[in-house]
Protein backbone atom coordinates (compact mmCIF):
# COMPACT_ATOMS: atom_id res chain seq x y z
CA UNK A 1 0.00 0.00 0.00
CA UNK A 2 1.45 3.37 -1.05
CA UNK A 3 1.85 6.41 1.16
CA UNK A 4 -1.16 8.23 -0.28
CA UNK A 5 -3.34 5.14 0.12
CA UNK A 6 -2.28 4.71 3.76
CA UNK A 7 -2.91 8.37 4.50
CA UNK A 8 -6.30 8.18 2.80
CA UNK A 9 -7.32 5.07 4.77
CA UNK A 10 -6.34 6.59 8.13
CA UNK A 11 -8.00 9.86 7.23
CA UNK A 12 -11.30 8.25 6.17
CA UNK A 13 -11.41 6.16 9.34
CA UNK A 14 -10.97 9.18 11.59
CA UNK A 15 -13.47 11.27 9.64
CA UNK A 16 -16.11 8.54 9.75
CA UNK A 17 -15.71 8.24 13.51
CA UNK A 18 -16.04 11.99 13.84
CA UNK A 19 -19.14 12.14 11.65
CA UNK A 20 -20.89 9.72 14.00
CA UNK A 21 -20.39 12.15 16.88
CA UNK A 22 -20.39 15.58 15.27
CA UNK A 23 -23.46 17.79 15.31
CA UNK A 24 -22.22 20.68 13.20
CA UNK A 25 -20.91 19.57 9.76
CA UNK A 26 -18.85 22.74 9.54
CA UNK A 27 -16.79 21.57 12.49
CA UNK A 28 -16.36 18.20 10.80
CA UNK A 29 -15.18 19.88 7.61
CA UNK A 30 -12.69 22.01 9.53
CA UNK A 31 -11.40 18.95 11.37
CA UNK A 32 -11.04 17.04 8.10
CA UNK A 33 -9.22 19.95 6.50
CA UNK A 34 -6.83 20.30 9.43
CA UNK A 35 -6.04 16.58 9.35
CA UNK A 36 -5.29 16.77 5.63
CA UNK A 37 -3.05 19.77 6.22
CA UNK A 38 -1.23 17.81 8.93
CA UNK A 39 -0.76 14.88 6.54
CA UNK A 40 0.58 17.25 3.91
CA UNK A 41 3.00 18.71 6.43
CA UNK A 42 4.18 15.21 7.33
CA UNK A 43 4.85 14.47 3.67
CA UNK A 44 6.74 17.74 3.34
CA UNK A 45 8.82 16.88 6.39
CA UNK A 46 9.49 13.49 4.84
CA UNK A 47 10.74 15.15 1.67
CA UNK A 48 12.96 17.48 3.71
CA UNK A 49 14.38 14.58 5.73
CA UNK A 50 15.18 12.60 2.58
CA UNK A 51 16.87 15.61 1.00
CA UNK A 52 18.88 16.20 4.18
CA UNK A 53 19.95 12.55 4.35
CA UNK A 54 21.00 12.63 0.71
CA UNK A 55 23.06 15.77 1.31
CA UNK A 56 24.88 14.13 4.22
CA UNK A 57 25.71 11.06 2.12
CA UNK A 58 26.88 13.26 -0.73
CA UNK A 59 29.25 15.02 1.67
CA UNK A 60 30.59 11.65 2.80
CA UNK A 61 30.95 10.62 -0.83
CA UNK A 62 32.99 13.73 -1.57
CA UNK A 63 35.30 12.96 1.35
CA UNK A 64 35.76 9.38 0.16
CA UNK A 65 36.49 10.67 -3.33
CA UNK A 66 39.24 12.85 -1.91
CA UNK A 67 40.61 9.86 0.01
CA UNK A 68 40.57 7.71 -3.11
CA UNK A 69 42.41 10.40 -5.04
CA UNK A 70 44.97 10.65 -2.26
CA UNK A 71 45.59 6.87 -2.20
CA UNK A 72 45.97 6.92 -5.95
CA UNK A 73 48.57 9.67 -5.68
CA UNK A 74 50.34 7.79 -2.89
CA UNK A 75 50.52 4.67 -5.07
CA UNK A 76 52.03 6.72 -7.90
CA UNK A 77 54.59 8.23 -5.57
CA UNK A 78 55.51 4.75 -4.22
CA UNK A 79 55.98 3.40 -7.75
CA UNK A 80 58.17 6.37 -8.60
CA UNK A 81 60.24 5.64 -5.50
CA UNK A 82 60.56 1.97 -6.41
CA UNK A 83 58.38 0.90 -3.51
CA UNK A 84 55.95 -1.44 -5.17
CA UNK A 85 54.96 -2.83 -1.80
CA UNK A 86 53.78 0.58 -0.64
CA UNK A 87 52.14 1.20 -3.98
CA UNK A 88 50.22 -2.07 -3.64
CA UNK A 89 49.05 -1.13 -0.12
CA UNK A 90 47.95 2.30 -1.31
CA UNK A 91 45.98 0.77 -4.19
CA UNK A 92 44.36 -1.71 -1.78
CA UNK A 93 43.25 1.18 0.41
CA UNK A 94 42.00 2.97 -2.68
CA UNK A 95 39.87 -0.05 -3.68
CA UNK A 96 38.36 -0.16 -0.20
CA UNK A 97 37.41 3.49 -0.45
CA UNK A 98 35.97 3.00 -3.93
CA UNK A 99 33.85 0.14 -2.58
CA UNK A 100 32.47 2.42 0.13
CA UNK A 101 31.82 5.08 -2.48
CA UNK A 102 29.83 2.62 -4.56
CA UNK A 103 27.68 1.76 -1.54
CA UNK A 104 27.05 5.44 -0.87
CA UNK A 105 26.18 6.07 -4.50
CA UNK A 106 23.60 3.28 -4.31
CA UNK A 107 22.12 4.89 -1.18
CA UNK A 108 22.02 8.26 -2.91
CA UNK A 109 20.20 6.75 -5.88
CA UNK A 110 17.64 5.13 -3.56
CA UNK A 111 17.14 8.39 -1.70
CA UNK A 112 16.64 10.25 -4.96
CA UNK A 113 13.91 7.78 -5.92
CA UNK A 114 12.28 8.25 -2.50
CA UNK A 115 12.58 12.00 -2.86
CA UNK A 116 10.86 11.95 -6.24
CA UNK A 117 8.12 9.66 -4.92
CA UNK A 118 7.49 11.89 -1.91
CA UNK A 119 7.54 15.02 -4.06
CA UNK A 120 4.95 13.46 -6.35
CA UNK A 121 2.85 12.47 -3.33
CA UNK A 122 3.24 15.98 -1.95
CA UNK A 123 1.98 17.54 -5.18
CA UNK A 124 -1.02 15.23 -5.37
CA UNK A 125 -1.89 15.67 -1.70
CA UNK A 126 -1.41 19.42 -1.95
CA UNK A 127 -3.87 19.51 -4.85
CA UNK A 128 -6.36 17.41 -2.90
CA UNK A 129 -6.04 19.65 0.15
CA UNK A 130 -6.58 22.79 -1.91
CA UNK A 131 -9.57 21.24 -3.68
CA UNK A 132 -11.02 20.15 -0.36
CA UNK A 133 -10.46 23.61 1.09
CA UNK A 134 -12.43 25.19 -1.74
CA UNK A 135 -15.25 22.66 -1.43
CA UNK A 136 -15.22 23.09 2.35
CA UNK A 137 -15.79 26.82 2.12
CA UNK A 138 -18.60 26.35 -0.41
CA UNK A 139 -20.33 23.72 1.73
CA UNK A 140 -19.91 25.82 4.87
CA UNK A 141 -21.46 28.81 3.12
CA UNK A 142 -24.34 26.67 1.85
CA UNK A 143 -24.90 25.18 5.29
CA UNK A 144 -24.86 28.60 6.94
CA UNK A 145 -27.35 29.90 4.39
CA UNK A 146 -29.62 26.87 4.89
CA UNK A 147 -29.34 27.26 8.65
CA UNK A 148 -30.34 30.91 8.37
CA UNK A 149 -33.33 29.97 6.20
CA UNK A 150 -34.41 27.38 8.74
CA UNK A 151 -34.16 29.90 11.56
CA UNK A 152 -36.17 32.44 9.57
CA UNK A 153 -38.77 29.80 8.76
CA UNK A 154 -38.99 28.78 12.39
CA UNK A 155 -39.30 32.43 13.39
CA UNK A 156 -42.16 32.97 10.95
CA UNK A 157 -43.80 29.76 12.11
CA UNK A 158 -43.58 30.88 15.71
CA UNK A 159 -44.85 34.32 14.72
CA UNK A 160 -47.90 32.72 13.14
CA UNK A 161 -48.66 30.83 16.32
CA UNK A 162 -48.12 33.96 18.42
CA UNK A 163 -50.43 35.98 16.16
CA UNK A 164 -53.08 33.32 16.52
CA UNK A 165 -52.81 33.64 20.30
CA UNK A 166 -52.93 37.43 20.04
CA UNK A 167 -56.01 37.34 17.83
CA UNK A 168 -57.69 34.95 20.22
CA UNK A 169 -56.90 37.20 23.19
CA UNK A 170 -58.14 40.23 21.27
CA UNK A 171 -61.37 38.47 20.40
CA UNK A 172 -61.90 37.49 24.03
CA UNK A 173 -61.33 41.09 25.13
CA UNK A 174 -63.79 42.35 22.51
CA UNK A 175 -66.39 39.81 23.60
CA UNK A 176 -66.01 40.74 27.25
CA UNK A 177 -66.21 44.44 26.42
CA UNK A 178 -69.36 43.94 24.38
CA UNK A 179 -70.91 41.88 27.17
CA UNK A 180 -70.05 44.55 29.74
CA UNK A 181 -71.50 47.29 27.53
CA UNK A 182 -74.69 45.30 27.06
CA UNK A 183 -74.95 44.81 30.80
CA UNK A 184 -74.47 48.55 31.41
CA UNK A 185 -77.20 49.38 28.89
CA UNK A 186 -79.53 46.89 30.51
CA UNK A 187 -78.92 48.41 33.93
CA UNK A 188 -79.56 51.90 32.51
CA UNK A 189 -82.86 50.80 31.00
CA UNK A 190 -83.95 49.17 34.25
CA UNK A 191 -83.11 52.19 36.42
CA UNK A 192 -84.51 54.78 34.00
CA UNK A 193 -87.57 56.50 35.61
CA UNK A 194 -87.05 54.75 38.90
CA UNK A 195 -88.31 56.81 41.91
CA UNK A 196 -85.07 55.94 43.64
CA UNK A 197 -83.19 58.18 41.19
CA UNK A 198 -85.60 61.17 41.33
CA UNK A 199 -84.53 64.31 43.23
CA UNK A 200 -87.23 64.26 45.90
CA UNK A 201 -87.07 64.38 49.63
CA UNK A 202 -86.00 61.13 51.04
CA UNK A 203 -88.84 58.97 52.24
CA UNK A 204 -89.14 58.43 55.96
CA UNK A 205 -91.21 55.32 55.58
CA UNK A 206 -94.21 57.07 57.27
CA UNK A 207 -96.94 58.06 54.79
CA UNK A 208 -98.52 60.75 57.02
CA UNK A 209 -95.13 62.28 57.81
CA UNK A 210 -94.20 62.31 54.16
CA UNK A 211 -97.43 64.08 53.24
CA UNK A 212 -96.93 66.70 55.96
CA UNK A 213 -93.39 67.35 54.72
CA UNK A 214 -94.64 67.90 51.18
CA UNK A 215 -97.33 70.35 52.42
CA UNK A 216 -94.77 72.14 54.50
CA UNK A 217 -92.47 72.46 51.55
CA UNK A 218 -95.30 73.78 49.37
CA UNK A 219 -96.27 76.39 52.01
CA UNK A 220 -92.68 77.55 52.33
CA UNK A 221 -92.49 78.14 48.59
CA UNK A 222 -95.79 80.16 48.61
CA UNK A 223 -94.58 82.33 51.46
CA UNK A 224 -91.26 82.97 49.71
CA UNK A 225 -93.09 83.98 46.53
CA UNK A 226 -95.37 86.43 48.41
CA UNK A 227 -92.38 88.00 50.12
CA UNK A 228 -90.57 88.42 46.82
CA UNK A 229 -93.60 90.15 45.22
CA UNK A 230 -93.96 92.51 48.19
CA UNK A 231 -90.35 93.58 47.82
CA UNK A 232 -90.87 94.24 44.15
CA UNK A 233 -94.12 96.20 44.75
CA UNK A 234 -96.28 93.71 42.97
CA UNK A 235 -99.56 92.30 44.18
CA UNK A 236 -101.72 89.46 42.99
CA UNK A 237 -104.63 90.57 40.79
CA UNK A 238 -107.97 90.43 42.59
What would you note in describing this structure?
- The protein is rod-shaped.
- The chain has helices spanning 3-21, 25-80, 84-191, 207-231.
- It has a domain at 3-161.
- Helix 1 (3-21) runs antiparallel to helix 2 (25-80) and helix 2 (25-80) packs antiparallel against helix 3.
- The mean pLDDT is 81.
- 6% of the residues are buried.
- It is mostly helical.
- The termini are far apart.
- It contains four helices and no strands.
- The longest helix has 108 residues, at 84-191.
What's this model, at a glance?
This is Phage shock protein A. The chain has four helices and no strands.
Distance between the termini: 147 Å
Measured on Cα atoms, how large is the radius of gyration? Answer: 59 Å
- The whole-number mean of residue pLDDT values reads 81
- Main β-sheet description: none
Helix count, DSSP H or I runs of 4 or more residues: 4
Helical amount among residues, as a percent range? over 70%
Quick one: overall form? rod-shaped
* Overall SS class: mainly alpha
Secondary-structure element order, N to C = HHHH
Low-confidence stretches: none
Number of strands: 0
Question: What is the beta-strand fraction?
Answer: under 5%
Amino acid sequence: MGLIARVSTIFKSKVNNLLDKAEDPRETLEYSYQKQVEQLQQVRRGVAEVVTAKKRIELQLNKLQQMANQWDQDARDAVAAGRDDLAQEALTRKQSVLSQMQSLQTQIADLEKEEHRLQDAQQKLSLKVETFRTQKEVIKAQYSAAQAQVKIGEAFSGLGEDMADVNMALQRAQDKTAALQARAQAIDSLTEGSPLLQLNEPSTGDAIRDELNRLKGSTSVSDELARLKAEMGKTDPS
